[in-house]
Amino acid sequence: MIKAKEQGHLLVVDDNEMNRDLLARRLRREGYLVDIAEEGYQALDMIRAGRFDLILLDVMMPGLSGLEMLAMIRKTHSLADLPVIMTTAKDQSNDIVEGLQRGANDYVTKPIDMPVLLARIQTHLKLKTLSQLKDEFLRIASHDLKNPLSTVLMSVHIVRERVPVGAVMQEQFYQMLYFIVKHSEDMQRIIRDFLDFQAMQDGMMVLNLSIMQLNQLAAEVVQSNTDYAHSKSISLMTEFDDHTPTLNADDARIRQVIQNLVGNAIKFCPPASLVIVRTRVADQSIIFEVCDSGPGLTDEDMKSVFSKYSRLSNKPTGGEKTSGLGLAICKQMVALHGGQIGVFNNGLNPGATFWFSLPVESPAIVATRDQSGSAN
User: Fold this and answer.
1) Quick check: 66 and 13 in contact, CB under 8 A?
2) What is the CATH number of the domain that holds 62?
């Protein structure tokens, strides 16, 4: 069964106590989080106060009817933002037509055929997810990708105009090539983070397991970030436990996690900082740590640091772009391997330490899932 938070938060609105309680119980057994309201004004207050994924709304109610309530909902919530399925008697075809005209997404007739209702709920929740996905991509394209793309295009035009074929390239134009590569990599990372996060949300991420050595992987990531650290006058050091055993893991995905943690430390640390990358063995697990000497995290940061689109109080010190998804992806990647991830401030010393642990003997979990979300 899919967890309730994955299924969706539903609101059942019906003045008939038996109908709404029975429907709520059946939906909860399917894994949905369900609230109930016995009349329209109560339901509107609940919608204003909370966040629902879908409304099941009875047409015939005393006081504020379902159709009147629907019209009020559509003043503040679009069809894509808050789907509404009307419940009506079979002989109320006029109400069905009016409901659809006023902005209902769908309808079911009483007595309710539960398999049909469940299928329609799933359909509208999937459509809502696709709409949100489109909105998120448009936000990324208009904000996170537009600015670096403009910089890339401007630099390309300048180099093309001022460096003829066969001419010796001056230092200032060579520096522009550096910015072209940097901003292109930023855009590539933002797109990759977005696609990876959606793949994991949809249960479509598959791990390709192989025997790997964490120290070697970490050393390669550190080496690839040396120039980046040097450009910000940040010292990048390693302290590896020479006795770390091999792991059964997805080399590319663990590399992605390490790259994110090391890259973030450099990204958010001020010049002249120190970043130490460590490995150690404890309790049948290999622990990887990135310890920095930056500003550390606030209590509010700690609450949301691994959440989707989290924006921490600290900002990149070199104007770098961030997707807001990197740490959320790291959390899920590590979880798929049966590991844990976390962060703590360094106490008396400045900065914070991000860490993850992977079990030495437990096999990694392959994240293949069917359309219902259950693991295969």
Assistant:
1) yes
2) 3.40.50.2300
Closest by Cα among 321, 314, 86, 368 to 206? 368
What Rg, from alpha-carbon coordinates, does the chain have? 26
Domain membership flag for residue 366? no
Q: In what order do the strands lie in the sheet with 352-359?
A: 235-239, 274-282, 285-292, 352-359, 340-345
Asked whether residue 372 is assigned to any structural domain, the reply reads no
At residue 126, what are phi and psi to the nearest 5 degrees?
-65, -40
Q: Is residue 159 part of a domain?
A: yes
CA pair distance 78, 255, nearest whole angstrom: 41
How many other CB atoms are there within 10 angstroms of residue 139's CB atom? 12
CA distance 97 to 92: 9
Query: Is-above-0.85 flag for pTM?
Result: no
Which tens digits make up the pLDDT trace of 314-343? 888 877 767 677 888 899 889 889 999 999
